[in-house]
Amino acid sequence: MSQVFNKTINTKLVTSCVVSLLLFFTPLASANFRPSDRQPASDYTRSGGSRGCPSSNNQIPLTLLAPKTYIAYTASTRPTFAGYVSSSQEIEFQIFEFVSNNTVTAFSNPIKQKTSPGIFQVSLPENYPKLTVGKKYFWQVAISCPGDDLVERAEFMVVEIPSTIENKLLTTDNGLQKSNTYAAANLWYEALAEALNSASPGKLGQIGSNLVQEFAKYESARAKENEQLVKKRIGNLQRIANEEK
Fold first, then answer.
1. CA dist 80 to 35, 121, 190, 198, Å?
2. What ranges does the record list as Polar residues composition bias (predicted)?
3. Would residue 195 count as lying in a domain?
């Protein structure tokens, strides 16, 4: 009787511990990107799709892993940028600064980088000028294909990080917790960068996959002629999120 009783107690204790651990770790696996202030992107960037270089119809084209139809935010003057290519490419990365709502200028010289199939990242080198808080920019990735240069762009703004978020980040060294903290604060670029730090090279990882699916929900076309392009882009983002975990 006592052996049966002890076995039952031990089983309940193990079950309780497992449930507690699952409850503890569940928030780490859940993306929480809910952009509360979706300012529409300009005509420079908000058109929806990329044709990609000539390839199989089933291949996903060059896709930037950042909002295109609305402005995303970063609190970094040297953010990390990420995208997806389905085949090895040499990309040309460049940032442009908005001088006015309708005028842009090249912020610095372009950066050329060879990429492998999957998720790629671009980090700004030390000699690259720092971005300025309060200013709006867009980043651009170009790929040269026979007879055409294919370009994708995404708009972003540099903002001050709230002190409450800074204080919260000081309480943890866990990359996934930091990613969720940034996501909850609407800081897309930091949220994804932290997620990718925990993923295998060329992959999103589970938290990155969740983040990409979250931000894709908020992509929407302002002009009717762009609706199909945006829908196609959302479909590509969902495929990337599922295939590149």
1. 19, 7, 8, 14
2. 42-58
3. yes
The verdict on residue 95 lying in a domain is yes
Q: Is residue 10 part of a domain?
A: no
Query: What residues contact 37, with CB distance under 8 A and at least 6 apart?
Result: 186
Instruction: Read off the pTM.
Output: 0.83
Contact 59, 47 (CB under 8 A): no
Residue 196 lies in domain: 36-243
User: Is residue 16 one of the residues assigned to a domain?
Assistant: no
Q: Could you list the pLDDT tens digit for every one of the 245 residues in the chain?
A: 445 434 444 444 444 443 333 333 344 455 578 887 789 999 888 654 555 565 666 889 999 999 999 999 999 999 999 999 999 999 999 999 999 988 999 999 999 999 999 999 999 988 899 999 999 999 999 998 777 778 999 999 999 999 999 999 998 888 888 999 999 999 999 999 999 998 999 999 999 999 999 999 999 887 776 889 899 999 999 999 999 98
